[in-house]
Write a structure and sequence with these properties.
binds adenosine-5'-triphosphate; alpha+beta; nine-stranded mixed β-sheet; 25% strand; six-stranded antiparallel β-barrel; 35 strands; binds magnesium ion
Length: 878
């Protein structure tokens, strides 16, 4: 076997399976398909292909091969400590959807390992499920693996099963790296030992049963094959390195970090672990951000935040000063250029997100660490070994200091965290938040807590084309959330119909309002929501008559309101496309809200938009409106939609059939909302504001159609009111009039200041009259108010030519006292020293100051002592 690079290994694997009839597909994003709610992040090659395994969708080919980006946070504690675990890694895989099975899968795996990349057979071990005699026969007879190198293991190790559904035995291939890499114990268990000597490289899963979850298995008519081999692990084997961080491309990232830290890799196990952890986490981080994850406090965003912050903290442990992670991003992008050029394409964006988060964290840490240290000290002083739940909760709640970090720092000090206490407080807080939400709205809780009992049929939505229809009442729920059969005049009610033109809030679009009527019955519908099961809830109030389950009613939406909503929703699509044109393709929708008044659109972008960018975006959207582009909606499957370039939303639920909304060639998005039939119907689009929502997320608010008219009317009114206030006849002149007025004000202000100075001067001048004799000198004293030190000094210049004058004046502005001493040239010659005088005075009044022999000033601490100070002057001068 010879040394092979990571990139060559990936290519050799994929092309080997292509030669066996597999369709090569590039890695799917780390964010699972929107309809898969079971997973936060892709953790295996088969994860994005589940729908093909389950038969929910027809695969493009029944044999596929991929090299899939994976994130496994459950392995986080092992990362850096074992040779073979990363939170990020690439998984090579070949898959059969009801096509080939065990014989081919094992034969090709063996052929690839022993013939293509020439791993010596005697370094390999095979494990199988203990009851899988078929697998034993095939490995032994067909592939020639000696019986004593095939190990039978129990369900725990070699049976793949999650709850009920498709499952089956698996077979793992392990590689023996030799005694030098192991635990060194004489009784090392080899394949089953957790040490790094014999490592699992490839797992072949034979999905051949349908399990009922109780241990009963029915064979599947068409069994599947799902295999997974860690690319970095394979590279460890082929490159003979110690661990997956020493693999060719990965070690360059680690090198960049160790350079930054000024610490050599290999010098010390503790710092080596830190280097490996940072290397791993920054890889995960780059790939997550690239795939559209933004740091936040929940879900995927939290995984990212945690990885990034953990990396930052390990950096601090290594003694790296300041932030450094964003400097490593380009290295990660460069090392992955061959397989993942998108990292380089989005380099600036990734760097920005990383640096914003790292800076934010560094502030949190600085503030929180001090408090945590105090908590730790207190705990130790009390002789306890557990940090109190309340303290840890407060640290988290008030300072955003993450629990896992508290836990790690506590562990370093040999302390535990009162997890139960923390969890209880966290839970209480959640309850409070839930209650606050429930208290807020009439039926705001409806979709969350409603139990609709036996109503299971989805409501038929006809609102894409109809604004009213006849429907049957299927269920009624009253204000106390009881399912009822009939309801009387005046009651708040939720109506469930078999069919409806009302759009149920979703995809960022508000629910419709309108009327549900029948003879003698009128229900005003104030909002419409949709349950996860597709049941529409019409929330309203019976204003006339009563209604019962089984009644036939006419349901009609408020069409004018809906038209305004459609205008704003279509504008949101144009806006997204325009933003991507102006700012770049890193712009992804992070949230949106559309009602009849406005469109609010949140998107990933790292800095405030400039005035020019905002104007450009607005101009592009309006151009598309004026072009009168036809809006077409097509129903298709998600793959076709994505291929035709439709922008899909992360986290949005797309079923087997998706709705693609196309506006000319300008915008194509997957969307279930209601839209215009032509962009021209929007009238005009106007951006109202651009602001920040969270780090890396901006928000634009805008409006269309009548909203623009209202905006213009508002602005006109403002102009007219202003004109009236400014007393201009013609509103067009308000700017000129305003400029004129402010110029007038300026002149007046200057004049007033001049006048003030004059007044001041004459006030001080009269002060110069208060004269007395003190020793050789003529002493001039006075106490003033409201005059600045400079104004007083200006006047005192006048005594400079007198033969023996010494002036001491105090002034008070805004309750602050100052002393000013001035001595004429003649007085200085006679021995007067203003600086010395003021020092003596300060001994009495407190405060401090100083100056030259002819002039000195001081701030006064105690104004009430001034009189005493003046009285002391004859002595000071005498
Ligand atoms: P292990 O027991 O070593 O953690 P696993 O049983 O969790 O492995 P599988 O779920 O069977 O692994 O995944 C298939 C392959 O993916 C493994 O054989 C291994 O080569 C690779 N792999 C799994 N987890 C990691 C990881 N955290 N880092 C790198 N490679 C991994
Ligand atoms: Mg594992």
């Amino acid at each position: 076997m010879k040394w092979m690079s990571l990139n060559d290994l990936r290519e050799s694997y994929l092309s080997f399976f292509e030669s066996k009839g597999h369709l090569r597909h590039k890695s799917f994003p780390l964010i699972p398909p929107a309809d898969d709610k079971s997973l936060l992040l892709i953790n295996a090659g088969m994860a994005p292909l589940k729908k093909y395994f389950k038969g929910e969708e027809e695969p493009p080919r029944h044999r596929m091969t991929t090299c899939q980006k994976c994130i496994r946070t459950p392995d986080i504690e092992r990362v850096g400590k074992t040779a073979r675990h990363g939170t990020f890694f690439e998984m090579l895989g070949n898959f059969s959807f009801g096509d080939y099975f065990k014989k081919e899968a094992t034969a090709w795996a063996w052929e690839y390992l022993t013939k293509v990349i020439e791993i010596p057979e005697d370094r390999l071990w095979v494990t199988i499920y203990e009851d899988d005699d078929e697998a034993f026969e095939i490995w032994n007879k067909q592939n020639g693996v000696p019986a004593d190198r095939i190990i039978r293991l129990g369900k725990e190790d070699n049976f793949w099963e999650i709850g009920s559904g498709p499952c089956g035995p698996c077979s793992e291939i392990h590689f023996d790296r030799g005694p030098g890499f192991g635990c060194g114990r004489p009784d090392c268990a080899g394949v089953t030992c957790d040490c790094d000597r014999v490592i699992e490289i490839w797992n072949l899963v034979f999905t051949q049963f349908d399990g009922d979850g109780n241990g009963n298995y029915t064979p599947l008519a068409k069994p599947n094959i799902d295999t997974g081999m860690g690319l970095e692990r394979l590279a460890v084997v082929m490159q003979g390195v110690n661990n997956l961080f020493e693999v060719d491309t990965v070690q360059n990232i680690m090198k960049a970090i160790s350079d930054k830290a000024g610490i050599k890799y290999g010098a010390d196990e503790k710092s080596d672990i830190a280097l490996r952890v940072i290397t791993d986490h920054i890889r995960s981080t780059c790939f997550l951000v690239c795939d559209g994850v933004v740091p936040s406090n929940e879900g995927r965003g939290y995984v990212l935040r945690r990885l990034l912050r953990r990396a930052a903290r390990y950096g601090k442990l290594l003694g790296i000063k300041g932030t450094f992670l964003s400097d490593i991003v380009p290295v990660v992008a460069h090392e992955n250029l061959t397989a993942y050029p998108e990292l380089t394409e989005k380099l600036d964006y990734i760097k920005k997100i990383v640096s914003i988060e790292e800076e934010k964290f560094s502030k949190t840490i600085d503030g929180g660490t001090e408090i945590l240290n105090a908590i730790i000290e207190k705990t130790i002083a009390a002789g306890a070994d557990t940090l109190p739940g309340e303290d840890v909760f407060r640290l988290n709640d008030t300072f955003g200091f993450p629990l896992d970090l508290t836990r790690e720092i506590a562990e370093e000090k040999g302390l535990k965290v009162d997890e139960a206490g923390f969890a209880a407080l966290m839970d209480e807080q959640k309850q409070r938040a839930r209650k606050a939400r429930a208290d807020k709205g009439d039926f705001g809780w409806a979709t969350e807590t409603l139990d609709l009992g036996d109503v299971t049929a989805k409501t038929e939505f006809v609102g894409y084309t109809e604004s009213e229809c006849e429907a049957k009442v299927v269920a009624l729920i009253d204000a106390d959330v009881n399912e009822v059969t009939g309801t009387k005049n005046g009651g708040k009610v939720i109506v469930v119909l078999d069919k409806t033109p009302f759009y149920g809030e979703g995809g960022g679009q508000v629910g419709d309002t309108g009327l549900i009527c029948a003879d003698g019955l009128k229900i005003e519908i104030k909002d419409t929501k949709k349950t996860n099961d597709g049941i529409y809830l019409h929330i309203g109030e019976v204003v006339e008559g009563s209604v019962s389950v089984g009644d036939t009613v006419a349901a009609a939406i408020d069409t004018e309101r809906r038209a305004a909503i459609r205008r704003n929703h279509s504008a949101a699509h144009l806006l997204q496309a325009a933003l991507r044109q102006v700012l770049g393709v890193h712009v992804e929708q992070a949230g949106s809200y559309v009602d009849d008044k406005r469109v609010r659109f949140d998107f990933s972008h790292y800095t405030a938009m400039t005035k020019e960018e905002i104007a450009k975006v607005e101009e592009i959207v309006n151009e598309q409106i004026l072009k009168a582009l036809p809006v077409n909606t097509v129903e298709t499957d998600i793959e076709t939609a994505k291929k035709s370039g439709a922008m899909a939303l992360f986290g949005e639920k797309y079923g087997a059939v998706v709705r693609m909304v196309k506006m000319g060639d300008f915008s194509t998005e997957l969307c279930g909302g209601t839209h215009l039939s032509n962009t021209a119907e929007a009238g005009l689009f106007k951006i109202i504001s651009e602001s920040s929502v969270a780090s890396g997320v901006r928000r634009i608010e805008g409006t269309t159609g009548k909203g623009v008219l209202e905006l213009i009317a508002e602005q006109n009114e403002l102009i007219e009111n202003t004109a009236r206030e400014l007393k201009t006849q013609n509103p067009k002149d308000i700017d000129k009039r305003a400029a004129q007025l402010s110029a007038e004000l300026k002149t007046e202000k200057a004049e007033r200041e001049k006048l003030n100075d004059k007044l001041a001067a004459s006030a001080v001048e009269s002060l110069l009259n208060n004269r007395s004799k003190a020793g050789k000198f003529t002493l001039i004293t006075g106490m003033t108010e409201g005059l600045t030190v400079n104004a007083v000094r200006g006047v005192l210049d006048k005594i400079k030519s007198e033969p023996d004058a010494v002036a001491v004046i105090s002034t008070c502005v805004d309750g602050k006292y100052n002393l000013i001493v001035s001595a004429s040239d003649g007085a200085v010659k006679l021995g007067a020293n203003a600086g010395k005088i003021i020092k003596e005075l300060c001994n009495i009044v407190g405060g401090g100051g100083g100056g030259r022999p002819d002039s000195a000033t001081a701030g006064v601490k105690d104004g009430s002592k001034l009189k005493e100070a003046f009285e002391a002057l004859p002595d000071i001068l005498g």
